[in-house]
Hints:
The structure holds 3 protein chains of 3 kinds. Chain B contains 7 helices and 20 strands.
Amino acid sequence: MYMKPEGKKRIWAEYQKEIPDDHFFYVRSCIRQTFFAGSEQYFLKILRDDLGKDVYEDPRHTTCTGIGYHGDVVPFETIQAVVARHFALATEAGYKHIAISCVTSFGIYSEILETWKHFPETLERTRENLYKATGRTFDVPETISHTSDIIYKFRDQIARKAKYHLIDISTGEPLKVVEHIGCHYSKMFPKYGVGGAEFPHVLVGMVEAWGGDIIDYPERRHCCGFGFRQYLVQANRGYSLFATRKKFESMQPYRPDMIIANCPGCTMFMDRWQYTIREIDGITYGADGQGIPVLTYEEVAGLVLGYNPWELGLQYHNVQSLPLLRKMGIKADPSERFLAKDGSRLPEPENLING
Amino acid sequence: MKTMSAHIVVAGGGVAGMEAAGTLAGMGYRVTMIEKDDAPGGHLLQWHALFPDRRPADEVISHFRKHTEHPNLRIITGTTVEKVRNHGSGVLVSLSGGAEEQADAVIVATGFELFDAHRKEEYGYGIYDNVITSADLEAMFNRGLVAKADGSVPSRIGLVHCVGSRDEKVNNNHCSKVCCVTAVKQAIEIRKMLPSCEVFCFYMDMRMYGPYYEELYRESQEYHNVNFIRGKVSEASVNINNRLVIKVEDTLAGRPLKMELDIIVLMVGMEMAGAGMRLAEASGMKRGINRFLESTDHHYGNNLSGLRGVFYAGTCTAPMNITDTISHARAAVTETVKYLNSR
Amino acid sequence: MRVTQSNKFGFTINRSRLIDYDSSDRKVREYVTLREPSFRLCFACGGCTATCTAGQHTSFNLRRMNTFIRRGEIEPLREEVKRCMLCGKCLLVCPRGVNTRNVVAAAAEAIVKLERNEL
C-alpha cells in the first residue's frame, strides 16, 4: 500500500513487553459485564477451556475506583490502597501475574507501579495505609497485563483452533477492520503497551492472525472521546460525541466491516454514539449505511473459535452484528437473540441499528 | 625545536578537517588526515546548493580538493581515530585496525551526524512513503527530480522545522542553528523546480541568524510565494487518497489546522557524531550536556580541549554552518601552531 | 445548526474549530495579494496590531485578520474588516514594508465582491 510494513515492524520490535504464560490473577471491570455481557465470561472460558490456562478469581476484589479517580472524587492515596488490597489478595492466593480486564484499570495499575518505582516512599505509605485499614500485607506483582495482551500472546493458538476467520466468505477477501486502543493502555506509558503509543500492535496482531486486514486511517490515534468528566456530566457529552464522530468521519471512506476495541469505555461509546449521531445528525456510518459493529476482542476471539454469538452477548450492542456474521459465514438465528436459557422471552431493546 | 618537522594528526576529513589539514600542510607541517568514509568531504558531499545564495556545493568541494592536495598531507580513509593520549612530549593516536600514529599535536574534527528521523515515530519516517528528511531532499535535488515515491508530481510539500532539535523527548534540547535557513533555501529550490507546487514551512521560530539569511526569508515570501505557518506539527498520517495528512496548531490564528500534503520534509538537526563520542569517551575529553565536545572556555578557548596538544575544530563542538566551521578550523590551526611554537 | 431532537438528550455534538485547509476558499487572499503585492511580506510580528487605534477598543486584530485571510477563513472577517479607521498607523510600524492600510481596503472590497459572486 502506501506504507512500508518494515517500518512498523521495527517499532513493534522496540516496544515488546513481558506477558506471562500462565497463572493469572484476574481483576474484572466495573461496567463491562453490563454492556458486553459475554466478554469477561468468554475470556475465562477461552483461557481455561480452549487454552488450558490457570486463571484465578477472588470474589472479594472490588472496583479499582478508576472512574472515581479520573472523575476527581477518589484521591490518589485511596486508590493506591485499593489496588494494594488486590495485590494482597493475589499474594494470598500465590499469584504473581495480574490480568486486568479494563484499560482504565490497567492505566491505574501502571501509574501506581511507576509511582512506587520512582517514589518509594509512596509504596511505604501505601503499605502502612493498607495494614491499618485491613490488616493485610502484599507483594508487588511481577507483571501486570491487560487481558488484550494475553489474548494477543495466544493469538496464534486461537488461530489454530479457529472455526471461522475474519474473511468475507462470499469474496474470500479479508474483512476491513478498524482497531482502536484505549488511551490509558499505551498513551500514558508507551513501554507498557505492545507496540508503543504511535503504532500499537496488540489488536493489529490479533486481527492479522485471524485473517483480517487493518485499516490505517488518519484519526487512528484520536481518543474516542469517552473520558470521564466528559460523560459523567450530561451537558458535557458534546465533547465525547465530537471526538467519536471525528473518528467515524475519518474511517468511513475505507468502508470498514467492524471495529475492534480493547477498552470497555471505547467499545461502549463507539457503539452507543452511532445511535446518538443518527438521532442528532441523521447519519449512519458503515459500508452500506448499516452501522459499524463494535466488538470487544473477547467477542471477536469467541466468534473466531465458533462460539454462539448470542451467548457472547452481541445482541446487546446498539449496532447489531448480523451483516458481519453473515459475511463471516456464522449461522445465527436473529429470532433467538432475546430468549432466556429456559426459552422465555427477554425484553427487546429499542432503537437497535440493524435490528 | 624545529617545529616545521612537527607531525599533526587531524581526526576527521570533513570541512573542518580538510580546512585544518590543508592549511597546516600549506604552512609546511607534516599532516596526516584520518577519515572514516572512503573519501574525504564529510556531509558537504551530500548537499546540492549552499545557503544563502544557493551556490553549487560542488564549487566548495573542488576548493577543498585542491586545498588538500599537498605533498605534506597524507590522507588515510576508511579508518577512525579510536583514542588519543599523551605520550612523552607528544600524542599517541590509536586507529581502528590497530595501527598507531605518533603526533606532536592532534586536531579533533569528527563532526556531526544528522538526527535519525525514525526516532520521531509520530511523523512516520520509514513507515509512510512520502515522509523524507532534508538530506533525502538534497539527494533529490542532486538527481534533478523531486517526485513522490510513486513517481507522480507533488502539488503540495510541507517542511517541518525542529525535528530532533529543541526536543526534550529525544534528549536534544539544543537548537541545530542551520535547519531554518536550510528549510527556506530548500523551499525556494522546490518552488523554482516545481512552480505549480505549493510549499509550506511549519516552524516554531525562524532562526535566520547569519549574513543574508533574513533576506533569504524575505525573498522566499516576496518572490517565491513560500507559505509560513507557525506551529509544531504533531503527527502525520495517510488518508485514502494516498496523501499525507498533518495536524498542526496554527498559533497565529489560534486554532488547530489540518492539511493534506504530498511530501513532508523533516528538517533533521545535528547531533554529536558517534565516532566522535567514542573517541571522547576513550580519551577523557569532556562533553557538554548536549553531548558535543566541551572546550575549556566558550569565549576565548573554544578550540582548546584541556588535554596537552589536542585541539577541537568544527561541528564536534556545536552545530555550525560551513563558513563558521572553516573559521573555527583556522582558529584551531592558530592554537595548534601557538602550542607547537611554545614547546 | 440543524433542527434536531437533541433536546431529548440534553446535549448536542460540539462544533469543530479546526481550520481544514483543503476545504477553505482562498479567493479573498488571491484578490488581496493581486491588489496589494506587499501582502506577501507579512510575517505576523503583530507590530501593526499593537499600534492599531481600532484594536485598542474593539475586537479588531489586524495580524489575526491577515492570518485568517491567508488561511481562507472568511467568516471571522466579514464584520471585523469594517472596524478599521484607515488611520494608517499600522503602515508606519510594519518592519517589512507591507502597505497594511491597503490590505484592509482590499480585503473589504474582496468581501463585498465575494458576496456578489464576482470573485
